[in-house]
Amino acid sequence: MTAAERRERFAHLTRLSWDLHGLGVCSSLVLPVAGQPVLEIRSATGTALVRITVVRRYCGWAFVWRPWWARLWQRGEWVWAEADNAADMIVSAVTA
C-alpha cells in the first residue's frame, strides 16, 4: 500500500468519525503501530464493539464492518465510502 492510499484511508475514516459524531454516535479511531487503522463504535445495546475499516475495491473505497476473513459481501454489511449517507447507513445497520 502506498503512502497516498494510507492517507486516503485515514481521511475516509476521519470523515466517517465526524459524520457519526454529528449523529450522536461516539467513535474511536484506532491507529495501531502495525496493521490498518479502524474506527470503533458501540452497538445500540452498548455491549458489542463494532470495528469499521475501509478497503479499496476496483471501483472505489468501501467501509466494511464484517471480519476481514469473510468472503461474501452481504447487503447491510458494507457501504461505499463516497456515499453522502454512509454514516446513516452504518448506524442503521449496526443498531438493527
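The above is record 1. Record 2 follows with the same two-line structure.
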Amino acid sequence: MRGDTGFPWADAESDFLRARRRQVLSRLAAWLRRVPDDVNIMLPFDEVVTALGRTGEKRLGLQVIRLDTIVGSVDRTRDFDRRFRPTSTRVRERWQRLALAERRGESIPPIDVYRVGELHFVKDGHHRVSVAHALRRKTIDAYVTEVLTRIDAHGIRFRGDLIVKDLRRIFLERVPLPGQARAAVVFGDPWNYAELGESVEAWGFRLMQDERRFLDRVTVAERWYVEEYQPVVRMLHQADLIGHRTEAEAYLWVVCERYRLIRTHRWDDEIISALRARR
C-alpha cells in the first residue's frame, strides 16, 4: 500500500494529510484555471431529486458499487469535496480511525446510498467513502435504495446542470410529450424550455379556439409535435436553417422570428424566405 511504513497509526495519519493536501491543491488549481465554482462541489441529493421530479423508491439491498459513481451526499456536502477529500481537519479523528481499521484489515460496515440513474448519493458512510478513495479502492459495499424520477439523470455532472433538468422537468409537465418526441426536444440553454412551454400552450389555446372544444395537455402536446413541430423542422432542414443549433433551438428561433416578421401563424414559402434572409 502506498506510503506504508509498517506503523498503521502513522500511515493512517499520513493518509489523512495526503487527502487534505490533494483537496487544497485541487481548489488552487481550479482557481488558477478559473473553472466554475461548482466543479469540486459535491452534488446535494435533495436538489437533484427535486430537479428530476421524485416519483418513488425501492430497496435493492447490498451491492458492490464503483466509487467513481458516488457524486453526492444527503446532508454532508460541507465536510468533503466532489471526490470525497476532506475539506477541513474537523473530520480528522474519525477519518483516521477508519483508515487505521482499513489498514489493519478490520471489518468495515457497508455504506448506505441512494441511486439516481447511475449516480449514487451517500446517506451514511461519508468517512468510509473518503478513506476508500484515499486508499485507492475502486469499489465499496453499499446498501442501495433506488430513487425513481420523472426525467433521467443523464448529463448531470455539476450543480449548475440541475437548472437544465429542473426547467426540462417543468416543461414536460406542461407539455407531456411521448417517448420519441420527448427525446427530440433538447436545448442547451435551460431557459428555452420555459419559452417553448409558453409557445406550445399558446398554440394549444389557439387550437382549442379553432375546434371549439377543450383538449387536455397530453392531446395538445401530441398534436403540437405532429402537426406543428415536425413539419416545421422538416422545412428548416430543407431550407438549411438548422445550422449549429439543435432542431428544437432552430424551431424556437424561427417561431419567434415568424411573429416578429409576419405576425401570422401560417408557415409558407414567404415566411421561410424572410427567415432565410435574416439568418
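Residues 175-278 form one domain.
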